[in-house]
Amino acid sequence: MPKKGGRRTGTEKEQYIPCKQAKLEIYYPLFLKSDGHPESVFEGLIFPIKQDEFFRDYWEQKPLLLQRDDPGVASYYQSLFQLADLKELVNKGLYYGRDINICRCVNGRKKIFNKDGKVNYVQLKKDFDQKKTTIQFHQPQRFKVFILQLEGEKHWRLYRPTVQLAQEYNAEPEDRIGTPTHDFLLKPGDLLYFPRGTIHQADTPPGVSHSTHVTISTYQNNSWRDFMLDVIPQLVLDTAKNDVEFRKSIPRQLLMKVDLSDSSRQLSDFLRCLADHVENGKEPRSSDMKKDFIMNRLPPFLETSLDSLAPDGTLPKVDSTIRLQFRNYTVITVEPEQDPLDDTIKQMVYVYHSLKNKRQAHMMGDEDKNEEGVTEPHGLRFPLSHMDALKQIWSGENILVRELNLASDAEKENLALSLWSEWLIEVI
């Protein structure tokens, strides 16, 4: 966050990483007035650009610089978070590495100057003032729900990516990046967006004591590549149940060969078969990406604490009218489950949500783990026969419990009660 003179780029994890980082980042110090809904926050973030225009003309295509010469906006954001605010947070108990990184570019590479254990503010300020280091403050939303802002000024240079929308880190030598496509000063109230893969450099201009900004990296692992890696394995398993060709053995000695080109034709046939299944209505199933998304999603921002979230009001009955709530914080998946009695595999419907995710542990690796030590999202499990009824509820319309597509009134009422107990529906 706060920066002391010198060049920097991106957000890295290694001890030494080159100062040009290829990733998607947004820097935004914009006055937001919204209802807390994600779309409302985003609309305020890119104002006065409209959402349709942003995704049509800029998203994953080219940088967007919004320069807002408005002293009122600048002073407002300076009041939300400044370098001086770190002193109070350090006194609450921050740790090097987990919460704070002290770093500086040395000979074109990022060097970490972290100490061990808890952060000491006197030492932190000394490193900042004397070593002219950058203070990286990780996941600040754990401590303050605030609108991201910029303090001071930052000189930015953007270059054309050598790999369009790169998903892997790639260090480029100075002689390959060419001349900047954009060269500008980012000031309080300004916003900068650039697509993943854009090579960038930034430094604090001479005469500016320090610069404070917040970086938002988004959609890092949500490409079609990631989606196919998630859905195709299950598609192969489902297809193999009904197609004996998928269950036949591969040629003898195939795995011993250096050149596997002899299998290319057969593999192409299998891929065409999978494509035919999808085109003929076979629904792809995503589970890992959905679960990862919901496990790492912040809970909704409410005036009351979500730690004590509990259902209240009227219990749903078969004659009740119900309505879904917090739809943007839920996902539905279909996953195989092994029956412990006879080892058979059956498909179950899972409803996962982020309502009970802990803001203080967000993206910190401190999430709750089950008895096997595995982190799982919060949610409910239902038989596959409940899917149609869940789709009725997830349509967003008010619906009578009695009208749910289930065999008995008892099943309908139990489904409604289960969702109500997790705060996912309300009784109208």
Main-sheet strand order equals 2-12-9-10
Helix content: 10-25%
**Gap from first CA to last CA:** 45 Å
Total of DSSP H or I helical runs spanning 4+ residues? 10
Tell me, rounded to a whole number, the average pLDDT. Answer: 79
Low-confidence stretches are 1-34
Order of helices and strands: EEEEHHEHHEEHEEEEEEEHHHEEEEHEHE
Radius of gyration: 26 Å
Structure description:
The chain is 25% helix and 20% strand. It contains ten helices and 20 strands. A four-stranded antiparallel beta sheet has the order 2-12-9-10, with no helix packed on it. A four-stranded antiparallel beta sheet has the order 3-7-6-8, covered by helices on one side.
For this entry, give a set of tags.
428 residues, 4-stranded antiparallel β-sheet, alpha+beta, 10 helices, globular, disordered N terminus
